[in-house]
C-alpha cells in the first residue's frame, strides 16, 4: 500500500470551507510577515502525568522498552557497542494535554460538520473529518490576553468572555488563529481541586463573533474553549455550545489546553502561529506542540 | 505543580551546541525568507497500521473510546444532545512512523551526547536530552533529492550516498535542515518484503560532510538516516555509525521515515522546514508531522 | 460505586443455557473427582512477543514503569529503602495468545447468542455476553489428542477433524470441557511462515457433535477452533462456521491457542479443567492461563 | 521459536522454596478435599475504570477495535456475513485491580528473593522471579474474616491485624493460602476519598505468624496486605514491611485487592483456592480472577 498522496498545506478536500483560500500560498506568505524578532515559543505543556488535566481522564503513559539504566545494569549492546533507548506513548488527547480537535470530535444530530454521516466515525477511525485531514496550519496568530486586559492574573472560573471583551483587545480576520488566554492553567500549580472546580471560557456570543470573522482556528489555554462547570461540563444548550458553534457549524478547528504564559509575557499580539497535528488516520484529535514565531 | 517554564524556540539548555545561535531569532527570520509561494506540504506518512515500517516493531494502535457508530446504535448523548468521539493512540515512533529522534536515543559507552550519564535514561524517562528539549525547529530546509540527481526512481537498497553526491546537489550551512531523499518508501507500495530487504542511506563520509557544515537537523525518508542491511541493522562500525556521528557526537537531531514525494515533485531545493515534536518529557522520540513551506 | 455482587461460579444470568445446571455445585464436585495424581499443568503459552500468533495482529506489549535496572543506575528507593518493579501490559487476546472468547465475540445478523441485540456491543464494552459473565470454569476436561490418534506429530494444515475421529478417541458429556489438540503450535518453532500457511481444526460436523453432547467449553490449541486457510480465514459458510455453531448458536465458550504438549505427554484423557478469565467488563475475550489438574 | 516447556503446576525452578513439596500432587489432592458444596465463587472485582483503586495509578483501559455498533452503523461483515467484536486491554495491575504480585515486585538492597540480582529486572522484563514462574495455584484456602470476628462491617483504616487476632480465627498450615478480609473495599462504595484516607492491614507480627506457618500465598482484599497511611504508603520500617517479610524474605506470593464479600457471606472457613496468573514473561504481577470452590 502506498501512503495516500499528501496534497496538503490546507484543510483537506473533505472539509473544505469558505476560508480555505485564506490558507493558500499567498495567505501563508502574508502570515509569515507577522514574524518580527524570529523568536520561537512553544505553546504546549509538557506531556507527563503531572500536568493540568480534566479529572477522570486517562492520563498519558510513557514507557521505555529499553533504556540507559538497562545498559548500566548489564544489558548487552547491539553489534559492536551501540546502545539505545526506545519507548512507547499511550495518549488520549482530549482533556489531558495540549491538543487539536478534529472536525469529527463533536456534533449533534446525525451529521458531522459539512453533512458527513456521523455513523461513519467508527471504532477503527473516522472516514471523514479525521485529524489527518488538517495537514498543517501556518497562519497569523492573534493573542487575546483577557486577564491582562482585565488586570487580573487569571479569569475566575465563572467568567464567560464576551464579544465586547474580545473586540476591545484586538481584531482578527479570515484565516487567522484566535489565541485565547484565560490564565486558568496557572491555577493547577496551586490546586488541582481548584482547577477542577470549573473553568472560564468563551461565551456563545464571543464564539459567534469569532466565527463571523472567519478565523481558521480557535486556540485556548482552557480545556474546552467554552467554560466548564464543576462537573466539567458546558452549561450552554445545544444552540450556544461553543464546540457546536465553532467546530460543528463552521468547521473551525479548536486547539485546547495550550500553555500561553511565555507568549503572554512577550507582549506581542500578532505572530506566526504554526500547528502540525499528527497525521493520525481518522483520529478525533492530536497531541500538539503549537509554535509561535514572534 | 506548575509546568516548567517553556523558554524554548531553541534546543534546550541541556543540549547546547555550537549552532545554537543559528536557531535564534535572526536565524529564524532569515530562514523564513526561503518561503516563495507559501504552499505548505506535509512531510509525514499517515499514522496507521498499513504504512511503511521496520519488521517486528510494535505498530501504532488507535482506538475509539466512543464514536459515531455507538450513537447510531443507541448510545445516549451527553446533556441536551451533544455527541462526541474520543480516542487513544499507542505509538512507539522508532521504525513505525515519521518521527524525530531525541539526543538520548542512541549512544556508545557510558555517556550520551554532551557527556550526560547514560544511566539517567531510565524507565520513567530521560533526565537529559529528552525529546521535550527540542522545542520547535524553524529553519531553512535544503532538499537533497539523490534519486533525481542519479536519474532513478529510488536508490537501490545497497546504495550509500557519498559526500560527493551531496555536494553535487546542493550546499547547506550552519543551522539548516538537510532533507535527504532516497525514494525508498516508494518500495513499500509494491512489496513490504522488498522494503525489508535492506535500505539505502547516507555513507559515513556523507554524514561527516553534513556535520562539518553544522546542520541543525538531518531529515530522511529512510528508516535510519544511514543504510540498513537485510537484518535491519547498520553495517558500519562504531566509528562510522551514522547515529553516532550525527546524534551522539555532534548533537544533530535526526528525523526519519519522512514522506518526501510531494516535496520532491515541487522541484524546490530551498524552503522553510518546520518541526514541532511533542513535548514528551524524557522521551526518546516523537511522532512528527514536519511541514515544508515552499 | 460498589462493585456488582459476584454471585458466580456459573455462567452469568444474561447468558443462561441448558447446561447451566451442569456447572452447579454437584457437577463441580463430580468434576473434581477426575483428579488422580494432583499434578497441575498450565495450558497457556507464555505471553511475550515471540510466541505463536496470527499474522498482522497487535502483539502483546509489556513495559516496566520502574525496574531493578533503574535502581542499579541510581534511582532513589522509596522511604527507608524499598525498591520495586511495576509494569503495564497491552494485550489484544484474539490471535495473539492463549485466551477465552466471550459470547459477544462473534455472531451473524443483528443478534448475539440468546437474542441480545448486537448493537449493544459498543466501543465502551458489551452490555451483554461480556467475558466478565463467565465467572470461572471448573469442569471435567476431556482431551481429544487427534495427532496421537492418527500417529502423527501434528495434523496437516488442511485437516478438518471429523466427528468420527472425535468419537473414536473419547466420549464427552454435558458440562464437560472438550480439549482439542491439533499439535499445530509445534509448527511455530520451525517456521512462522508455515504456521501462517493455514491451520487444521474441527469440521462443522465435529462441532455439531460436540454441541449435541452439550459441552460447556471447547478449548483448542489452534487459533480458531475451526481450521484456517492461508489468508487466516475460515472456509466454511455461515451455516457451518465453527464460531457460529458453538459460540453463537449454542453459547459454548471457546478457548483458543492453548499449549497442550505437556498435557498430551501425560497421557491422561480425563482431568479437572480450570479456567478463570479476567473479569473484564464487557470484554470480548480474556487472556487465560487454563490449568489441568491431573 | 518453540515456547518453553511448561513443567509447572508448581512454583518455578528459579524460585524453589521449602514449601514446594506442599504444592505437589498429593498436596493438591488433599486441598481438593476442602470442596464440600462445589459452589464456585469469584474473588475478583470487575476490571473497569470505576472500581476501587489507589489514587494516581494508571487505570485499566479497554478499547474495542471493532464492535456491534460499527456493524449497526454499516460496517461490512467478514466473508459471507460474519460479524465480530475485538478489543484491547491496557492494565497496570498494582493498585488498580485484583492481582497477584510476582516475587520480583519488591525488595530491598541489591537482591530479589532467593538472591537473584535485582539488576536483572529490566525494562524488557524480569529474568528471574517473573509472574510467569508461578504456573497455577491450587491449594487449601483459609479465610480470616477479621471484621466478622470483631463484629464490625469493616476494619477501620488504622487497624493493624495482630497475630493473636489471626490465631483466634483459624489455623493455617504449610502450602495453604491465607485469605485475609478487612472489608475495606466496602468503603469505596460510599466514598473514594475515605478509601484513600488509609487502609487497614496485617501487622508485621501477623505477617511473621503466617510466614512461620509456611503458607504458599497471602491473599487480601486491601491494596497492600499490610496497612497504608493517608499517603498510600506503608508506615513500617524495612525490617517490618509486609512485602519484605512475606514476598522478599520468604518467597510467599501475595494477591491483593480481592473481593471477598460473597465468600464471607458463605460462612465457610476452608475451601479450595485456585489462582491462575497470566504467564506474562518477566512480569511483576498479573491481573487475576481467583476462584474459591466451596
H and E string of chain A? HEEHEEEEEEEHEHEHHEHEHEHEEE
Which strands sit side by side, in order, in the main sheet of chain A?
A: 1-17-15-9-11-13-14-5-16
Distance between the termini of chain A: 41 Å
Oligomeric status: homotetramer
Overview of this protein structure:
The structure is a homotetramer of 294-residue chains. Chain A is an alpha/beta fold and 294 residues long. Chain A has two domains: 18-51 and 95-293, Glucose Oxidase, domain 1 (3-Layer(bba) Sandwich), CATH 3.50.30; 61-90, no CATH class. In chain A, helix 4 packs across helix 7 and helix 7 packs parallel to helix 8. The longest helix of chain A has 9 residues, at 204-212. In chain A, the strands form four sheets. In chain A, strands 1-17-15-9-11-13-14-5-16 form a nine-stranded mixed beta sheet. Chain A has a two-stranded antiparallel ribbon with strand order 2-4. A two-stranded antiparallel sheet of chain A has the order 7-8. The termini of chain A are far apart. Chain A has helices spanning 25-32, 68-72, 146-150, 163-169, 185-190, 192-195, 204-212, 242-250, 261-266, and strands spanning 40-42, 61-66, 82-84, 86-91, 99-101, 106-107, 121-122, 125-126, 137-145, 160-161, 177-181, 201-202, 217-220, 253-256, 270-275, 285-287, 291-293. Chain A is globular and about 65 Å long. In chain A, a hairpin with a 2-residue loop joins strand 7 (121-122) and strand 8 (125-126). Strand 3 (82-84) of chain C pairs antiparallel with strand 6 of chain D, so a sheet runs across the interface.
